[in-house]
Each structure stands twice: as structure tokens, then as C-alpha cells.
Amino acid sequence: MLKAIWAQDKNGLIGKNDVLPWHLPNDLRFFKETTLGHTLVMGRKTFEGMGGRPLPKRQTIVLTRNRDYHNEGVLVMHSLQEIIAYSQTVQETTYIAGGASIYRELLPYCDQLYRTVIDHAFEGDAYFPEIDWSVWRLCEQTEGRVDEKNHYPHRFERYERINRAK
Q1: Which residues form the DHFR domain (predicted)?
Q2: Which residues pair with 137 in a beta bridge?
């Protein structure tokens, strides 16, 4: 099963120079708790922006056009078809974790979305692609706690696809 997970500001911004333009420990914890024990798919730039090493206790897939790319401890794939086929053969959930072009290409295959919305405007260069929200149902929404480490109001949302055409 494919699911997408991301954080965005109130304008849909998701990145600046291939990294997050904010620091929000609550969201990092949410991401970890949600994806632990599962597979993460991300583009090469996103992967390298996260330090270029796989996250613990998660299988990481790097999607790249570069046929010569390799990195210790990750699976490297070169097409959407490989990602989709992989997600259909494994028992654990496969989470799409960025960047913008990877989300754009794989959203049509996702059954659930996990979105953190930060109620603040940041500067950056990557935005989440437009979504047809009429095919998604909000199932869960939780307000995040603002404190000395989490300076911005935020909420965690989970959506399920309403109807998938067969």
C-alpha cells in the first residue's frame, strides 16, 4: 500500500534548497512514529538533503534517473513502475516522502495521506503539488502542541481516498 507523508506551511511550501525550511520537533517525531518499520521512497535530492543516509529501522528507496547512483544501505530504483511493483509485493506500508516531483508522480497511486500543516509562511522553492481534494476524506485531525521547542501552530491530518477507479 502506498501512502504519502509530508509537512507544509500554510501556503503549501515543502522545501528550500532540498531541506525543510523550519524546525518542528513535533513533526519530526510524528514522521518517525508513523514511518518506523516501513519503507520510505524519496528522490535523490530529498535523500541527500536529509544527510544522504537511510533512517534507522526503515527501508529506504531512492528514486533517481541516474543509473550509476548507489548508496550503502538503500535500494535504488529508476522508475515509478519499480516503486509501484515493490509496494505491491511487500507487507509493510510504503510511504512517499518527497520531493515535489515524486509526490506529483505517485499521488495517484496513494490510498492515504498524512499531512502536517504549519500555520506560518516560510520562504522556499518547493511546493506540494495541487491535489483534487474531492477524492479525499479527512479522517483524523490533531492539533500539535506549541511550546518552547515547537514555535509554530500546527496540526496533523490523515486522509483516505474516497473512491479509487478500478
Answers
A1: 1-161
A2: 160
